[in-house]
Amino acid sequence: MERRDWVRAESSLEQALRIAPRDPAVWLALARLRESQGQWQEAERLRARACRLRRRQGEVCD
Fold first, then answer.
1. Tens digits of residue pLDDT in 14-62
2. What's 57's DSSP letter?
3. Strands, E, within the chain: which ranges?
4. Which residues lie closer than 8 Å to 49 by C-beta, 6 or more apart?
5. How many CA atoms lie within 13 A of 29 on its CB side?
6. Are 61 and 31 in contact (CB under 8 A)?
7. Of 13, 49, 40, nearest in space to 29 by CA
8. What does the DSSP assignment read for 17-58?
9. How far apart are CA 3 and CA 16, in angstroms?
10. According to the model, what pLDDT value does residue 7 have?
11. Residue-level pLDDT at 34
C-alpha cells in the first residue's frame, strides 16, 4: 500500500470510529492498517480492543 493510500484509509477509519466507536470491525481494520505500516504494538492494542468489544457483544475472538 502506498503512503497516500494509508493516509486515506486512516482518515476513513477514524471517521468510522467517530460514527461507530463500538464496532469491533472498525477497530480490527485499523489494527490491520497499523500492521501494514509495521506498527506492531499499536496493532496489537487495537486488536485487543476489537476483541473486548466482540466479547461484550457475545461473540468469540479468534
1. 999 999 999 999 999 999 999 999 999 999 999 999 999 999 888 888 7
2. T
3. none
4. 24, 27
5. 16
6. no
7. 13
8. HHH-TT-HHHHHHHHHHHHHTT-HHHHHHHHHHHHHHHHHTT
9. 20
10. 87
11. 94
Residue 2: per-residue pLDDT: 67
Helix (H) or strand (E) holding 16: helix 3-19
Q: Residues 26, 17: contact at Cβ < 8 Å?
A: yes
Q: How far, in Å, CA of 19 to CA of 27, rounded?
A: 12
Determine the residue type at 10. E
Q: Which three cell numbers stand for residue 18?
A: 467517530
Residue type, 34: R
Task: Please identify which residue in the block is written with the cell numbers 475472538.
Answer: 61
> What is the grid cell recorded at 52?
473486548
